[in-house]
Each structure stands twice: as C-alpha cells, then as structure tokens.
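ok, trying the design again with the full structure, not the truncated one.
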C-alpha cells in the first residue's frame, strides 16, 4: 500500500516538475518576444521621423545594403504584426534557431 502511494506521489512530482520547466520555457520565449516587440517599435518610430531624402540600410550578414524607406517600413510593420500575433496566441517559435527569420 505504501509503495503504491509512493509511486503515485513520485509520478505527480515528476508531472509538476515538467510543468514548471514548460512554464519557464514559455516565459522565456514570451520575454524574448516582448523584447523584440519593443525594439521593433523603436525602429518604427525612428523610421517615421525620416523623409524620402534619407538613406536606409539593412544588415545582411556582414554587409550593409541600401533599402527603400517604404520597404523598410513595411518590413518592420510585418515584424510587429508577427510578434504581436505570437504573443497573443501564446506560442513561442524557436527564436534561437533564427531570430531574424520572420
């Protein structure tokens, strides 16, 4: 009888520990998304200050490439939409694999 209770208790403790790990992973993913959201909002604000005479560059690997202002604004807008949707849905994509993939 005691062994049965001990095994059941051990199983419940393992489930609880797994839930704690899952929660920690979810919170970490959400924090990364929140940081990216903040950074992209700052970029959006900075791009809003520019006019057509300004030059915008984007970083592709080790190279800076000229980019149209409208294209840069559209890209940042899409990123904001994506990040906001991920936060709303509560999903956490694998940000470690390729944080700039969206």
């Amino acid at each position: 009888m005691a062994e049965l209770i001990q095994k059941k208790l051990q199983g419940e403790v393992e489930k609880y520990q797994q839930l704690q790990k899952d929660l920690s992973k979810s919170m970490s993913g959400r924090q990364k998304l929140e940081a990216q959201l903040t950074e992209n909002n700052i970029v959006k604000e900075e791009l809003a200050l520019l006019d057509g005479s300004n030059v915008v560059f984007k970083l592709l690997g080790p190279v800076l490439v000229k980019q149209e202002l409208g294209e840069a604004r559209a890209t940042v807008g899409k990123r904001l939409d994506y990040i906001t949707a991920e936060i709303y849905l509560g999903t956490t994509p694998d940000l470690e694999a390729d944080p700039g993939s969206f």
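Keeping the full-length input from now on. The CA atoms of residues 2 and 8 lie 10 Å apart.
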